[in-house]
């Protein structure tokens, strides 16, 4: 929408206020500023509003708008007077307006910071969350224009509007004056308003996906008259799956008049269908898609699956076609899966939807699957089917122009039929939002992710999203912090998904191994050690073991309190003739299933070598098992029980019963009911490699007691079974930490000068108009860091020997002489550093050696610095990635971090637990804790430094990068020897502000 000439050139049309939003019922709408071109739309909108709503808006009968009203409501300066409209199909369904006022309620301009606000929503669209969405957006606009408070007059009978204000989460004051309710809202976001906003976002986006996956009727547009072709294939798959809703075939090439195709009504267009169509599957060439989308929009279709190709995967021209497709669909309130999609599947008994190109609908199960690749989707469906696993839902999003992995997480979080979410992703459109949603979802059910295109540095064709420049290792660390189970291959994803969907979470890393092959048991034992598990010595049942022997041994292991999981290894039995007996898979499966049914809730996995039918038999056994009962939630174990269990663990004996975890594959009545995690709460300083904590328990649903374990997964190799179990162990530990969330220590507040740092940053950026910002000098960086209690040891320039001697006299011997030239910085191995220089003679000699060896002082830029206590050299960094946000990093200085990439990462803001985990999660962490008899260093001081730096970049997003190198950590205290800081205008954030759909 372009501004008209009548609008002030000083207040140009603010197109950044335009936004697509998802409403409460899952439909979409567009919010945009009202312009002078909207007079007819406004009048038409007002005519469709009931007399009661008009009365609530104007406090009197107001049947029509005068010309003066229309002019006033469509002419805005976008500063002191602003109007926003919600549109669907180009027509208004709701409006909001604010007018800046002074303290007496009269029209005003800045610096007045209060405005009067009023809403009006068409009656047919009330209850869809229109007013709530408008409040979020008009509040953001007002804050941008310097308005800090809204005032509103509401009639006492207007309960809906009062509820909108009350439920917004803003700080508010209410009074009753002259027969109306006077409300004042402080527009500064609060924790409550942000929680309300995100809660509404979650429910709306989940509902939008649910409408796609559970439609009451489906039309396949582009169904061919002859067998074959994409459209006809989808129609055939819909019918073969037994879809419970109404199905229609649509093709403009059909003959006129009533007709059927494959037994379903066939029509030339949607307009010929007398009933509501909820979902349209579009399988026509790309140049005909706009016509089909318009037909869908004009006839009330709720969502689209676009199988057609020829969009962003074809280059710039196709990318623009894709954007126009999304704009067109959203203008009608529809969401899109695709284009270039493979389709969607919902196995719920009440739906049985297979609107995809998959020839066979998967069995019903507890796994939800999202993929950005049709080919990978086919492979995953085939792999799961081959191993007897079922799905709850499946989305293959193709180019992912609209519905994304984030939407799937929103849906999976509250879907009672999904216990494990598997995602194959090739790009992350909004990494900040992804980690937030993944963290919340992982607190109630496992999220397993494979990330494709990890090392290309670009997005796959068709994925028009911002490219993050952070390394893949950093992405992996951030996913782990959010509780995501990150695996490398789709095979590993299926392996982990099968275990998590069918078995309870392990209480710890202790693994019992039993089987009829000593060699296979030893392979499994070695694999456990390699994955960081704690295996017990394998139990060899010998090759003569019968299925009953397996049952007895498994039952005994499940009852053993010294193990947390069991891996059963099996090879075929050899008969008297010397040939393998291949028909024993069914018998062994029955024996193992019976042992599990009578044992404790511990995960069990089977490793088998060429035992025909075992995996299928195990899957069949679980599918015919009786439903498992539910029991009320358990309380968190007491500290005494925790201590007893830890003591028992150290002694190798069973401890008292503690909270146990339900099978991840069992049904929760609602998403708000989380499966409990076995085992006690872990300490705040976990071992290296431990994932970061889950959200506070108050944010996640209450846990519940586990029912009996479900399907026993079978693996053809020990390494695969062990790797899946190791992921489950780490995930379970992450879940347990939800009971003791990390905190930001309050003592930091007393030693941080946030205002002083802000003033310094503002002054520095004022002198640097370059949008890329500027690096700070050493002294400027020291001053800024000093405001946050980070002391950087001073350095003095030494352009010649005399200056070096003077600097040393000022600092006091012993000193260090080092170069600061970029190519020699932190390169002691090249001879650019001289340490423990004891006196003037030694300093002059060192200076001469340095310049003789490496070059002139003007090239070397030498400095003198007082010596620091001996310790371990580390490096601490913080940087802001435009896509992922602020990231805190830690590693040992030199070869470990630079050559081996041994660096750990956490998202900012970091808690005390994040800081503790950060220094313990690098592979070289033992060096900090007394490796080979050395003195342990002061890790508490190091953790405090990490927290201070985290606070700095969190409080001041203008600090776009900080590097503290080296940080020498001694047995007592630490010393920051070098610091570099860069300031720049902060990058725009996509995860704050009012909710909106992304525009790719």
Please, what is the average pLDDT? 85
Biggest sheet record: 8 strands, mixed
* Distance N to C terminus: 19 Å
The unreliable regions are 1-10, 623-709
- Total strand segments: 43
Percent helix = 25-40%
Give the amount of beta strand, in percent: 15-25%
Radius of gyration: 32 Å
Strands of the largest sheet, in order across it?
Answer: 1-2-3-4-5-6-8-7
SS field, number of helical segments: 28
Dominant shape: flat
Instruction: Report the structural category.
Output: alpha/beta
Chain-wise SSE layout:
Layout: E1 19-22, E2 28-33, H1 39-47, H2 51-58, H3 67-74, E3 81-88, E4 91-101, E5 114-121, H4 130-144, E6 149-154, H5 159-166, E7 172-177, E8 180-186, H6 191-213, E9 217-221, H7 230-241, E10 246-250, E11 259-261, E12 264-267, E13 279-282, H8 289-298, E14 303-306, H9 316-331, E15 335-337, E16 343-346, E17 353-356, E18 364-371, H10 374-386, E19 391-396, H11 405-414, E20 420-425, H12 431-442, E21 447-451, H13 472-481, E22 485-487, H14 490-502, E23 510-515, H15 518-530, E24 534-535, E25 539-540, H16 547-559, E26 565-570, E27 573-574, E28 580-581, H17 585-597, E29 604-608, H18 614-623, H19 639-651, E30 674-675, E31 703-704, E32 714-715, H20 718-736, H21 754-766, E33 774-775, H22 778-786, E34 795-797, H23 801-811, E35 815-819, E36 833-837, H24 840-854, H25 857-860, E37 862-866, E38 872-881, E39 885-892, H26 895-898, E40 903-907, H27 912-920, H28 939-955, E41 959-969, E42 974-976, E43 979-983
Parallel strand pairs: 5-6, 9-10, 9-13, 10-12, 13-14, 14-15, 18-19, 18-20, 20-21, 21-22, 23-24, 23-25, 23-26, 26-29, 29-32, 30-31
Antiparallel strand pairs: 1-2, 2-3, 3-4, 4-5, 6-8, 7-8, 11-12, 16-17, 16-19, 27-28, 33-43, 34-37, 35-36, 35-37, 38-39, 38-41, 39-40, 41-42, 41-43
Helix pairs in contact: 6-11, 8-9, 10-14, 11-12, 14-20, 15-20, 16-17, 17-18, 23-24, 27-28
